[in-house]
């Protein structure tokens, strides 16, 4: 990873990673993330594309960032927002399904993204 990433760049990289892995899920790569989202994988995977090796490596790196989120509920909420932004459906519908208030979850996800950015910088 080159340079320091801010929370918006981290969100972009995570969305991009989800699309890459969902589209290339039949080959090598971290499929465990997608196994939690089978319905969304089918929606995104229908848009088959090919990606350069660098894009796949970047996607694999970005997916490791979820491990930096220690709170499982926070990690899950962030993963669902990313999945929805990647084309998996409206995030408001997902929030409704789980009884979450969308604005609260979105605000919390912004905090989580900032925490990831700090950890990637080498902070605590």
What does this structure look like?
It is a single chain. With 124 residues, the chain is an all-alpha fold. It contains seven helices and no strands. Helix 1 crosses helix 4, helix 1 packs across helix 5 and helix 3 packs parallel to helix 5.
Keywords:
124 residues; mainly alpha; 7 helices
What's this entry about, in short?
The protein has 124 residues and is an all-alpha fold.
Outline the fold blueprint.
Elements: H1 7-23, H2 32-35, H3 38-45, H4 53-64, H5 72-88, H6 91-98, H7 102-121
Helix pairs in contact: 1-4, 1-5, 1-7, 3-5, 5-7
Shape: globular
Please state the CA-atom Rg, rounded to the nearest Å: 14 Å
Structural class: mainly alpha
Q: Total helix count? A: 7
Provide mean pLDDT, rounded.
83
State the separation between the terminal residues, measured CA to CA: 18 Å
Strand count, sense and closure of the main sheet? none
Return residue spans where pLDDT drops below 50 for at least 5 consecutive residues: 27-31
Extended strand count: 0
Write the element-wise H/E pattern from the N-terminal end onward: HHHHHHH
């Amino acid at each position: 990873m080159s340079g320091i990433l801010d929370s918006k760049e981290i969100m972009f990289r995570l969305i991009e990673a989800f699309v890459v892995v969902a589209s290339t899920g039949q080959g090598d790569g971290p499929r465990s993330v997608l196994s939690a989202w089978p319905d969304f994988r089918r929606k995104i995977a229908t848009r088959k594309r090919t990606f350069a090796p660098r894009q796949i490596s970047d996607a694999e790196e970005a997916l490791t960032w979820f491990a930096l989120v220690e709170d499982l509920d926070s990690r899950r909420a962030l993963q669902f927002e990313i999945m929805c932004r990647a084309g998996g459906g409206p995030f408001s519908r997902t929030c409704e399904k789980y009884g979450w208030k969308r604005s609260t979850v979105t605000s919390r996800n912004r905090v989580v993204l900032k925490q990831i950015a700090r950890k990637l910088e080498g902070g605590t």
